[in-house]
C-alpha cells in the first residue's frame, strides 16, 4: 500500500471533499425522486415519478414513519440532490439549484466549504474517480427542516487520484466508506449541507495508508 504523510492526507481530503455527492449508480436502499417530473431509478430497478408515494416512502430506511407533508417535501429535495449528482445522470446546475442562494456545503472532515457554482465543481471529477460510486442509505431521519442520513459511499477506484505527493494510480479496488450527511433546508432549498466522510477508511480501501511515522518524526 502507498503511504502518504499527514499533510498530504489532509490536502487530499480537501480535493475529494465532495465524495459523498457523486453517485453514479442507484442507491441500494432508497429511491431518489427527481423533482420536476423527471424519472429516477429505485432500489428495485424500476422508475418513479417526482412525488414520493406511500409505497416509495415505505421502501426508504426511515427512522420515523409519521412524516408531515412539509417533511416529505424536504426529503424529496434531498433525495433529488443525490440523484442529479449521479455519474449517469449528472446535472450540475440542478444540483447547485437545490441550494439556497447563500447555501453552503461543508466538508467537516477536510475543513472545506463550498458555495455558489463551486458546489458543483468536483462532481465530474468524482464521477471519473469512482465511475460506479453510489450511496447505500442505511438510516434516514427527518425532523422538520433537518434531514440526517447514515450511509456508506461505495464504488470502484478506477480513476487517478491527484495528491500533493503525486498521482495515486487506480487499482480497481472497491471502496466502502462510512459517511454521515446532515441537510438543513429553508423554504424548499438547502441552506446548509454538512458532510462527514470516513476518509481514513476510503483511502485505506484505495490502497493508501496514513503515514504515522512522518507525524512522530516531527516531535
Topology, please?
Layout: E1 2-4, H1 6-15, E2 40-41, E3 47-48, H2 54-59, H3 69-83, H4 92-97, E4 99-107, E5 112-115, H5 123-129, E6 134-143, E7 146-156, E8 161-163, E9 166-168, E10 174-186, E11 189-197, H6 199-206, E12 208-210, H7 212-216
Brief descriptors of the model:
single chain, 219 residues, Nuclear Transport Factor 2, Chain: A, six-stranded mixed beta sheet, two-stranded parallel sheet, 7 helices, 12 strands, 33% strand, elongated
What does this structure look like?
- InterPro entries: NTF2-like_dom_sf, SnoaL-like.
- This is SnoaL-like domain-containing protein.
- Keywords: Signal.
- With 219 residues, this protein is α+β, with helices and mostly antiparallel strands.
- It has one domain (2-216): Nuclear Transport Factor 2, Chain: A (Roll), CATH 3.10.450.
- Helices cover 26% and strands 33% of the residues.
- It contains seven helices and twelve strands.
- A hairpin with a 2-residue loop joins β10 (174-186) and β11 (189-197).
- The chain is elongated.
Amino acid at each position: 500500500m502507498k503511504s502518504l504523510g499527514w499533510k498530504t492526507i489532509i490536502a487530499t481530503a480537501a480535493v475529494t471533499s465532495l465524495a459523498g455527492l457523486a453517485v453514479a449508480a442507484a442507491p441500494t436502499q432508497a429511491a431518489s425522486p427527481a423533482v420536476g417530473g423527471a424519472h429516477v431509478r429505485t432500489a428495485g430497478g424500476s422508475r418513479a415519478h417526482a412525488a414520493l408515494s406511500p409505497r416509495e416512502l415505505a421502501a426508504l430506511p426511515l427512522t420515523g414513519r409519521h412524516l408531515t407533508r412539509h417533511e416529505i417535501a424536504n426529503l424529496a429535495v434531498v433525495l433529488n440532490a443525490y440523484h442529479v449528482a449521479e455519474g449517469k445522470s449528472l446535472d450540475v446546475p440542478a444540483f447547485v439549484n437545490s441550494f439556497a442562494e447563500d447555501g453552503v456545503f461543508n466538508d467537516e472532515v477536510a475543513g472545506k466549504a463550498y458555495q455558489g457554482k463551486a458546489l458543483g465543481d468536483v462532481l465530474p471529477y468524482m464521477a471519473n474517480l469512482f465511475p460506479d460510486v453510489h450511496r447505500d442509505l442505511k438510516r434516514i431521519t427527518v425532523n422538520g427542516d433537518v434531514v440526517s442520513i447514515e450511509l456508506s459511499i461505495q464504488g470502484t477506484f478506477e480513476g487517478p487520484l491527484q495528491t500533493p505527493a503525486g498521482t495515486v494510480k487506480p487499482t480497481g479496488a472497491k471502496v466502502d466508506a462510512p459517511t454521515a450527511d446532515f441537510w438543513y433546508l429553508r423554504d424548499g432549498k438547502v441552506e446548509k449541507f454538512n458532510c462527514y466522510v470516513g476518509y481514513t477508511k476510503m483511502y485505506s480501501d484505495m490502497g493508501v495508508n496514513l503515514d504515522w511515522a512522518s507525524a512522530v518524526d516531527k516531535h
